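Thread: "does anyone have the structure for this chain?"

Original post by V.I.:
We have the sequence but no experimental structure in hand. Need at least a predicted one for the grant figures.
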Amino acid sequence: MKAIHFAMAGILGLAGTGGAEGVAPETAPAGARTAPGRPVIARMDDAKYHDWLSRWEKSITADARNRYCDKAMGEDIGWLMTPFLDGFYYGYEATGQTKWVDLLVDWADSWVKRGVKEPDGFVGWPKAEAAGTQVDALNGFTADSLLGEAMVLRPIVLMAGEILRTPALKDKYGIKAESYLELSKRTYEKWSRRGAWRDTKDGGQISIVLPYGIDAKTKQWTDGYERRNDSHVGFSHPDNKANLVAQWLLAMADATGEAKYQEQAAKWFKLMKSRMKLRDDGTFAIWNYWEPAGEWDYKPDSSTKHWVGVHPNGGYYVIDTEAIVDAYEHGLVFTVEDIRRLAATGLAEKRYWPGLVAYSPEIRQHFEEELKPDSWGGLGETPRYLAMQRGGRAANDRPLRK
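Reply from O.Q.:
Generated one for you, tokens below.
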């Protein structure tokens, strides 16, 4: 399973050299479609563009036959389903073809109908060893996963928002989109009531995992449920997982217009930024994969529940940087100077983070040279990049739309 996690994180095998150059926004053509605060990227070679699109479409269509939507549970729903749901959402954004909407709806419905009612009346997708960590014996519980659900719901929510903003889509899929947003709202309420977020010092907040689950015999909560709000109980998510949860909240803010989701995400990003330390050269030191966020992250002997340090696998930092850019483009916590420093850091460390392709020509060059559109990592990364490219495509480039 770890190999899947790393591939999902977008490990693209990027390599090369280059000096640390700052953000270089490019002028957007009239009518360009791009996120607020994001420069439109330079147009890639036409032949390569269409080659990527063709290879990606063949790959995701073939791989989708695995239909993880019919069987994944717990945290696995995030790692196994999200690459496809991202691909379907960004596939629509890149092409305008509604077949990608149809595929997302098909997968979402298959997943939703498998949900089960849990002891508190909320729907979940519980699984043995769902926590993804042995800390506090968390993998010993049968439970559902905030992380897994947040990962899956983000592209579903983004698509729902797109449907409700687009009259032609709303006519066909509007009721379905509303149902997805309602499910996401209920899921947020579920995890809030279950104590899945914990306030930290200086106005921060982090998502956590708690030591309780569903008793197989009684079908009720195990004893730990009653202590879910005890500040001595719990284990903080590592940065990459907390970032993924926060990105779901940003999607909810976009789709619903409700400020509470963005405000909550901002609290995590405030804590995330505090963990990024500037070096004398103006770049960031590579931050720790996990750090204690409160007293719940310490053992009785005052040692931390998890090792503290830089993770040897760079895929986790791919997730972090994409979330940081997402926060910046929502006007939260991070500044343009932070993005410049992050791009400089990536170049100095030879970590060519895909989230920064719009902010560094050199990172974008490495991305275009090394991404394999028909790889596992390319399922979501390819159409996301091609969707960004649409802002820079010629106005007469219409064959991609139906």
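V.I.: this helps a lot. The longest strand covers residues 205-209.
O.Q.: and Residues 1-34, 392-402 have pLDDT under 50 and may be disordered.
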